[in-house]
Amino acid sequence: MNVKRIAALVFASCMTVLLAGCGAASNNDTGSAALPAGTPTLEEIYAANTLEVYHAANIQPSLSTCLREGPDNRETNALLTLYWEEDLGLVSRFRKTDMSFRYYFTRDDVNYSAAITEDEDTVLTILADDPEQRGEKEITYAEKLFHQYSFGDYSSKEKLVSCTDSGDTYHIITDISAMSFTDSTGRTYTYTTQEYDVEKETLRILDVFRTYRFTDTDGTVKECTRSRCMTYNKKIVSLPDFMREDIIEADWSRTFTLHYPDGSTDTVAVPDGISVLVQAPDGYEVYADSDCETVYEEDRTDEDGAFPNRTVYLAKK
Questions:
Q1: CB 209 within 8 A of CB 3
Q2: Which residues are CB-neighbours of 9 under 8 A, at least 6 positions away?
Q3: Where is the signal peptide (predicted)?
Q4: Residue 273 included in any domain
Q5: What is the pLDDT of residues 86-112, one digit of tens each?
Q6: Which of 11, 73, 81, 311 would bridge 62 by S-S if both were Cys, CB 3.0 to 4.6 A apart?
Q7: Total Cβ atoms within 10 A of residue 179
Q8: pTM of the entire structure?
């Protein structure tokens, strides 16, 4: 399985599962299949592919995830680039399927997203906390995207089956059957094997590929594939001009006050002169009045042409 590495955004490709040479080995036991000398453990590989490691190496990881599910071969693509910016910290640029790119960052413990609308106006979105998780220490939205669309975390349920020395890389096959599960709605995900291409020198993951069977609650069965690729570069993308000029250099003196269902409130700063939306968590709506009758939909200027301070209310739909 050859993966072409480019110093730009990588697009995922789905590859044929290679099962030749599979043994019956655990993660730290060669079993019946001899592993090349120096073969890394899965723990070592995952430890070399964390945000902290990328940050320390001054690397922007760019990930592409492709999911295909049959029999109609429906395809979903997600593209994520993470990088660090002095003023905003960890920033993620994210696009799913045909959506436009959005940029996610955290400032003063508040999660924001930024984008340019069709009429080229800058729009900032406050990602409101889930009221059911308030008070819990959570990772930032950018980190959540990384965990969701990258390679995840090491699981002891995954066992090393074989490793092929391919020169500068290892081609690794693992058994992930123990990770199969049935979710709360009765849908079943049946896994078998997963493949990796790993750079020898750094243990950076270049790509991961798996096939699995999805059985829906009505008995419908779909054979699915998921491919995740990554490229590494010192600088793949930069902050767009609209973020640098409108957001970083703006006067953050305007405020949004969010009222939560439990009676608590948060007052957060937003850039003055920029339209701001509030994205409610699943199951909730944002209202413009305390009676929760008028949905807050658009941030309008006042009679003087300025965006005023605002108060909004989160409530269950």
A1: no
A2: 62, 64, 79, 81, 231, 236
A3: 1-20
A4: yes
A5: 889 999 999 998 888 999 999 988 999
A6: 81
A7: 16
A8: 0.82
